[in-house]
Amino acid sequence: MQLAPTAMMANPSKPFLPRRGLMFILSSPSGAGKTTIARRLLAEDANLRMSVSVTTRPMRDGEVESRDYYFTAQDDFRAMVDDDAFMEWAQVFGNFYGTPRASIKAGLERGDDFLFDVDWQGAQQLSQRAGADVVSVFLLPPSIEELERRLRDRGTDDPDVIAGRMARARDEISHWDGYDYVVVNDDLGTCFERVCTILHAERLRRIRGTGLVDFTRKLIS
Ligand SMILES: Nc1nc2c(ncn2[C@@H]2O[C@H](COP(=O)(O)OP(=O)(O)O)[C@@H](O)[C@H]2O)c(=O)[nH]1
Ligand SMILES: Nc1ncnc2c1ncn2[C@@H]1O[C@H](COP(=O)(O)OP(=O)(O)O)[C@@H](O)[C@H]1O
């Protein structure tokens, strides 16, 4: 039997049974392409929501408040730490970044999947705290030279900031073995496809199928 193309394409992320959402972490050394991949995933996948972090770093040209980050003053960030408002937080490049707790817990129970753009410290803390809900993917550049070229061509940072990001890249890369998956972002289309494959397969894991117990019981009764 041949399926009509529209039937095959019909919302592949909509589950047949109730399921628990997952926390999909994308990390990489700065400039390797995680923002590019994340934006495309969000544009093409209706069931994926961004976990928007709070940061004390200044806004870049092209960034949008509450889409890219909640930009905040250092005192306000500290107050949020004291209120235990973050699932995790870290200092990166001299700025503070944190994942707000609000809405994630309830969203996961509803079956929403969340995308996290966090560094290795955030990935490690979230993996420790949220266990099986977390799927972590580390993106690598095809070479150090290409990483520096991407940072320069992006045109968002001064040379001294780029030097700082390159210095930190080696440290970031050394944490590759703390992730569930590692994907090289050489050709963008191929990398995007691989990340999609991981997300689609991880959604199908038995442990996320909260409706499976009732469903299988009915099937065999
Ligand atoms: N731990 C942690 N890291 C974060 C968070 N938000 C962003 N980051 C990381 O902070 C680093 C710097 O981010 P950014 O200033 O946007 O620069 P980018 O590296 O060019 O994306 C990146 O490695 C991000 O993944 C967060 O909430 N928690
Ligand atoms: N596969 C790729 N090939 C070439 N350029 C890329 C690729 N992936 C991303 N880029 C470019 O590299 C720069 C850094 O990507 P970005 O997504 O901002 O990285 P990150 O969020 O990891 O810092 C951007 O200008 C982006 O357009």
Automatic annotation (TrEMBL):
EC number in record: 2.7.4.8
GO molecular function: ATP binding; GMP kinase activity
SMART domains named among the record's database cross-references: GuKc
Compartments it resides in: Cytoplasm
One Gene Ontology CC term in the entry: cytosol
Reaction catalyzed: GMP + ATP = GDP + ADP
EC class of the enzyme, as a word: transferase
Primary location class: cytoplasm
InterPro entries, per the entry: GK/Ca_channel_bsu, Guanylate_kin-like_dom, Guanylate_kinase, P-loop_NTPase
Keyword Zinc: no
Pfam annotation, one family: Guanylate_kin
Matching PANTHER family: GUANYLATE KINASE, GUANYLATE KINASE-RELATED
Family, similarity comment: Belongs to the guanylate kinase family.
Record-given protein name: Guanylate kinase
